[in-house]
Amino acid sequence: MPVPRQLPPPARTWVDRAEELERLDRLLITAGPTRVVVTGLGGVGKTGLAVRWLDAHHERHLDSVLHVDLNGWSGHRPPATPQVLAGWLRALGVAADDLPGEVAELIALYRTVTSDKAVAVLVDNARSAEQVQPLVPATARGTILVTSRHRLAGLALAGFRHLDLDCFPAATGAALLAGLLDEARQPLGEDLLHALATRCHGHPLALTIAGAHLAAHPRRDPAA
């Protein structure tokens, strides 16, 4: 049975988040579980940062990497906890016929199965600590990263630390825009790239949308 590797694909264009990656490195616990909530505005790159960091530390999570999107602000209903746990347990090798029907028993089985594994869990777009708590693996050799627009202070008692992700400064935003433009468009000057990045307030999602628009309309004046 293949080892679960459920992370979303990495961003096509990556620009400097070295400081934030180093801060995550400092939060890494070598003698116990690493538990971090990454917070920030919607579209600021929380998931991208988490994926990048987990990929860089894949050797710590050789048994499995699990992922769920709780759809916190998408307008869609979040997946139910039993649905998430059942899917993860099947991915970890538990036969469907062996899955209990009660939520408490599913949580207990998940903790038992993960108790001795080097496992990473990425929980995206959580709205509350209550959503996350049943999904925390029991292993002392694992990592769980949670992304949210809220600080989820209720997770502090479970040993979670906090990392806040901000928008890009103008220079980094300009680098992201430059990386999104293809050869069909004439290169934009540095001043114009900085101006566009400032107009987007350094917000990664806004910059990505602007870059896609510019790439799709190579003859359009970007200053318009």
Helix content: 25-40%
Q: Compute the number of helices.
A: 8
Oligomer: single chain
Tell me the span between the first and last alpha carbons. Answer: 55 Å
Low-confidence stretches: none
How much of the sequence is in beta strands? 5-15%
Give helix and strand order, one letter per element, not per position. Answer: HEHEHHEHEEHHH
**CATH architecture name of the largest domain:** 3-Layer(aba) Sandwich
Number of domains: 2
Alpha-beta content class? alpha/beta
CATH superfamily of the largest domain: P-loop containing nucleotide triphosphate hydrolases
Strand order of the largest sheet: 2-3-4-1-5
Walk me through what this model shows:
By secondary structure, the chain is α/β, with parallel strands linked by helices. It has 2 domains: 18-164, 3-Layer(aba) Sandwich (Rossmann fold), CATH 3.40.50.300; 170-216. 37% of the residues lie in helices and 12% in strands. It contains 8 helices and 5 strands. It has helices at residues 18-27, 46-56, 81-91, 103-114, 129-132, 170-180, 190-199, 204-216, and strands at residues 34-39, 64-69, 119-124, 143-148, 161-164. A 5-stranded parallel sheet has the order 2-3-4-1-5, with helices on one face. Helix 5 (129-132) links the parallel strand 3 (119-124) and strand 4 (143-148). Helix 3 runs parallel beside helix 4 (103-114) and helix 6 (170-180) packs across helix 7 (190-199). It is elongated, with a radius of gyration of 20 Å. The N and C termini lie far apart (55 Å).
